[in-house]
Amino acid sequence: MKIAVKVNGRLYESDVEPRTLLAYYLRETLNLTGTHIGCDTTSCGACTVLLDGEAVKSCTVLAVQANGREVMTVEGLEQNGQLHPVQKAFWEAHALQCGYCTPGMLMASYALLQDNPAPTEAEIREALSGNICRCTGYVNIVKAVQLAARELSGEGQEALQEVEAHGASSN
Amino acid sequence: MALRQTELRPLGKPVGRKEDPRLIRGKGRYVDDIMLPNMLHLCVVRSPYAHARIRRIDASAALAAPGVKLVLTGEDLAKMNLAWMPTLAGDRQMVLATEKVLFQYQEVAAVVAETRAQAEDAAQLIEVDYEPLPVVVDPFYALSPEAPILRDDKEKKSNLIFHWEAGDREETEAIFREAPVVVKQDVRFPRVHPSPLEPCGCVADYDTARSKLTFYVTSQAPHAHRTVLALVSGLPEHQIHVISPDVGGGFGNKVPVYPGYVCAIVASLKLGVPVKWIETRTENIASTHFARDYHMTAEIAAREDGKVLALRVKTVADHGAFDGAADPSKFPAGLFSIVTGSYDFKAAFVEVDGVHTNKPPGGVAYRCSFRVTEAAYLIERVMDVLARRLGMDPAELRMRNFIRKEQFPYRSPTGWVYDSGDYEKTLTLALERIGYEELRREQAERRARGEFMGIGISTFTEIVGAGPSHTFDILGLKMFDSAQIRVHPTGKVIARLGVRHQGQGHETTFAQIIAEELGLTVDDVLIEEGDTDTAPYGLGTYASRSTPTAGGAAALCARRIRQKARKIAAHLLEVGEDDVVWDGTAFSVQGLPGRSVTMKDVAFAAYTNVPEGLEPGLEASYYYDPPNLTFPNGAYIAVVDIDKGTGAVKVRRFLAVDDCGTVINPMIVEGQVHGGLTEGFAIAFMQDIPYDADGNCLAPNWMDYLVPTALDTPHWETDRTVTPSPHHPIGAKGVGESPNVGSPAAFVNAVVDALSPLGVEHIDMPIYPWKVWSILRAHGVTE
Amino acid sequence: MFPNAFRYEAPATLDEAIRLIAEHAYDAKVLAGGQSLLPMMKLRIAAPAVLIDLGGIGELKGWRETEEGLRIGALARHADLERAAALYGRYPLLSRTARWIADPLVRNRGTIGGSLAHADPASDWGTAMIALHAEVEAAGPEGSRRIPIDDFFVDTFVTSLEEGELVVAVHVPAPSGPVAARYMKLERKAGDFAIAGLAVHIVTDGDGRVAEAGIGICACGPVPLRAAKAEAALVGRPLTNDTIAEASRLVPEDADPADDLRGSSDYKRDLLRVFALRALREIAEELEGRASIA
Predict the structure, then answer these.
(1) Interval B106-122: pLDDT, tens
(2) Could you give phi then psi for residue A82, rounded to 5 degrees?
(3) Is the per-residue pLDDT at B6 higher than 50?
(4) Under an 8 A CB cutoff, do B3 and A162 touch?
(5) Over 60: is that where the pLDDT of B521 sits?
(6) Nearest CA of chain A to the CA of C109: how many Å?
(7) Per-residue model confidence as pLDDT tens digits over B620-636
(8) Percent of chain C at pLDDT above 70?
């Protein structure tokens, strides 16, 4: 079946089997392997992407359901070679270890900050409760989202400049 | 918050991670991200029965299905002598079942097709005719004479795998006979699963023209995997190239070799194209190796003043259908004999019986050094039982019995030599930081109001860093580890190690060690692991062994480089080698502070201007065989409140004070502690893999095997004391598993403490709300 | 994990959907938010030959106030109802229930109609609709009809929808006076199905007596259940310690829980009692507070 999906701002036209899940379409047809798969029961959120701006589990959406819609994946966060503040904050606050949940966490955090620019710790924990991390114990993820919130609201520039600096040096 | 990577002397500093830039961009390369031309997909067909004879397998419909290229059964593998493979514990395991299956979800056949969907479609078409056999679920029943023998393939016709003992039986018995106080407690450590977020999987790519197998696998121990594959497949070891790409968590789950790997390799050998196998979450939980499942009974003999005298432990260990424990060969019950913990017992005697049942094989060291979690939980739990019996504060009882600072190195009654520790200092810090006395006062007030608040302490000692080659091997392979450092002309370094990180941050922490030793910055050092064609041989990353073994190798390898660099520096400074001093960032001339050369100067000279008679270049290898293990320890305190209406437990506060010796990167250590505490919390309150009487797995996915979210997980507080290891090159001890080992007892002790006014002495994990509710209602407490 | 192969249909109108359902009958499954159906298809517990995706049917989306109350379209998503500030005052149980369903990502896809038609005994929406005395609007080849919620759930995963019918909306009657509600649920972990749950919806009259009482019971029987005895004990009486205690004692009498990994039946019954006690106390405080402000 023919579908046309805009992913990270670019339009893709593909022919897919109806049973293809959005996560597999992104990974295997578009080679956007940043979207990960960690379970079969819509439990873990490693596959979280934005569908028309809302965070969803792409393992539980058919690619054909995304026809005519917009998808944003972790690969779409960085713009013009600039990491998004939420990416910088995850690095700065040591909010990732193995990195497998990270793309999903980043997308869920991004969606939260779109809706709620200054979330409390409780709101962050609630917003990320569909995403499982087995490494970090969440403390630093919460910190990272708070840091990103400050950066996006124009505060906290200083905190993230450091990251810019060492980001530049290791690229 | 993270520091930049461009500073000198980075050891001990919170340097931002070098692995993060790719991971936050979604540019990690995990095994499922590997897509090769002409790659096929493999799906495993699994048994619905826990114990059954296989009468017949009919694969004809599957073979005729669209896209199907190959079906493998046990019979096919038997013809190649591959139907069975060795386990790391010296047992053998079926790759694909031939005559019978021994656990539900056991591998029975494999289907290879053009797409994953087609392979799954065809897997459904394979017809297997099973004749169900009586199922053994209970390990105690397995040991009884009436139980059917499960492993009729073994010479010994018994479900008992091993009986293992440590300590001195007679001395222990003698003390128990005379002891004024004896407490006894049955304690179960439930069957749990490491469940890393990335499930297991591989891509096998056999190149017929070169007779070379490239095997991408999400592995914690790529070199060991290569050796096992060489032994199993008969392919020469140098023609097997194992690549462990980015690993999405391991926690012990990715140490063993699994049947799916062997099937993918056989399929690639037969078909001459790459074959990918990625397991589902259900396959991960219900067939790959589990952890724990220990049924323990502990007794402590003590004086009335609380001084402990002797410890006696008897354990039945459920290892499932095959002994898949990833323990060092000499230790069928791992390092369980560390069970005397932080306390100065005169004598101890420990017995473990390993048993076969119709359950998946195991048990691996899940964020744990081979049964250390079971040991730490048991002693910390039973010390509280003793405190309660004596009416003594659990902190006071611990202080009274700690191995004292001046007793190190301390030989335990089961034979371990503890390297260092200052347990009193660590507990004192924890009690002060949490405000222990104030909390006890608050607890007394709440109790007076009929509320249930609990404070739980765990002052565990860990044993990590397997290990010294005189004692430690897996399948005969000695458990040292390795580093290889190459300094290039511009002073930039590539270092390769035999371990394989899965999120622990080796690319940063090992760079810190090497940069510190060589006077460079973290930015100057690239760490590579996981490629057996390039990295030196090593046993891998598990059981918190990377820092104690490979970390030592990295430091000593760098020092070997520095030795040679000193000769080149002397040449550049035009003085004798004895006149050269190293201050951590440069070489200078003794007494002439103005003249110095940096490691970068030396590196350039190593390729352009070496003194006569000296071999050019600047590189070294080091295989580090540690003289002893290391003994991280900690004092953890949990504060809980119990909801009388629902039985739900709320963890109000949790403080972890760890002592892991020298800290390489405090930010990463703290992150490891947070993660380990979360897993310990899950084990204490949520996790178990129950089986019904027919051997059906009742928690084969993340809807029923519960992993905590951000909303469930408490906020963690951390602190530390630093007691360096005297024998480790930089004094470090390893920390990844400490929080998982130490925390379950703190949680359970807190809940038992809360319920102690009702006379409660013990609750088995996981502490589900209904268990607490049952206790409350049984004592007439209600809302 | 992949579902079985299926034919995908995406009708643009309700009539077209009804025609497709009639055409494919038992071979077809209807896809709303897909948060229960797609996982079942991935595990191949469900394997429809035809999947009829309602996602493109505009007339099934959103909600509107009617003369008798609120009509919620079948495709209204959990997240829509969770965030619908305009409904907090008159229909407080909607957002209070929605925030307990699965997790925020699932709530961005899952729909109220899909949830009701799935008829899981642990359905949070089913439980809330019992408390709200709602009616399900179904449409089929013979036209549309309204099914009282008590007649809608027949058994576990079984509804009284006829062959060829689908859920198009749910009707919630307007409260006749001051209203307060609570949804209480105990989970083994965040996002889990309930160990037990309770929806309580109370409307009072001018004298502070209970004019309408709705109490739904979650995960304690083959379908979401009504605590009819407790409701009867409250109507016409003020919320006092005594009436609250009596109603709370009666709630478990209408429950029919099973022993399972989540706990014993006794445990679940007692949870219902505790939830009723807490919910009614909180509701009483809230309504009193509101009365004193007025």
Answers:
(1) 999 999 999 999 999 99
(2) -105, 125
(3) yes
(4) yes
(5) yes
(6) 7
(7) 999 999 999 999 999 99
(8) 98
Give the pLDDT mean for B677-685.
98
Is residue B758 within 8 Å of residue B451, measured between CB atoms?
Answer: no
Nearest CA in chain C to B115: C2
List chain A residues with pLDDT less than 70: 156-171
pLDDT at residue B372 above 90? yes
Q: What percent of chain B has pLDDT over 70?
A: 100
| Minimal Cβ distance to A93: which of B1, B29, B709 | B1
Contact (Cβ atoms closer than 8 angstroms) between residue B773 and residue B648: no
Please give the positions of B annotated as active site.
220, 367-368, 737
What is the C-alpha separation between B766 and B774, in angstroms, rounded? 14
Question: Contact, B380 vs B394, CB < 8 A?
Answer: no
Q: C5 and chain A: CB distance < 8 Å anywhere?
A: yes
User: Which residue type sits at A105?
Assistant: M
Q: Does residue A155 sit at the C interface (CB-CB below 8 Å)?
A: no
Checking DSSP bridges between strand B68-73 and strand A54-57, what pairing results, if any? unpaired
The C-alpha atoms of residue B47 and residue C61 are separated, in whole angstroms, by 44
Query: What's the whole-number mean pLDDT along residues B204-211?
Result: 96
- Contact (CB, 8 A) for B467 and B328: yes
Q: Do residues B632 and B656 lie in contact, with contact meaning Cβ atoms separated by under 8 Å?
A: no
**Chain A residues 69-108 with CB within 8 Å of chain B:** 73-75, 77-78, 83, 87, 90-94, 96-103, 106
pLDDT at B233: 87
Q: Say yes or no: A134 contacts chain B, CB-CB below 8 A.
A: yes
- Asked if the C-beta of B778 comes within 8 angstroms of chain C's C-beta atoms, the answer is no
- Region B469-494 average pLDDT: 93
B30 vs A contacts (CB less than 8 Å): 33, 36, 100
- What is the rounded CA–CA span in Å between residue B527 and residue B60? 49
On the question of a cis peptide bond just before residue C56, with omega within 30 degrees of 0, the verdict is: no
Instruction: Tell if the CB–CB gap between A60 and C191 is shorter than 8 Å.
Output: no
Residues of C in contact with B770 (CB under 8 A): 195, 262-264, 267
The pair of three-digit structure tokens given for residue B191, joined into one six-digit string: 């069957």
* pLDDT in the model for residue A161: 55
**Residue C208 is inside which H or E element, if any?**
none
What is the CA B253 to chain-centroid distance, rounded? 8
pTM listed for this prediction: 0.97
Question: Strand pairing of B633-642 and C158-159?
Answer: unpaired
Count of alpha carbons within 13 angstroms of residue A162, beta-carbon side: 18
Taking every pair of Cα atoms in chain C, the longest distance, rounded to a whole number of angstroms, is 61
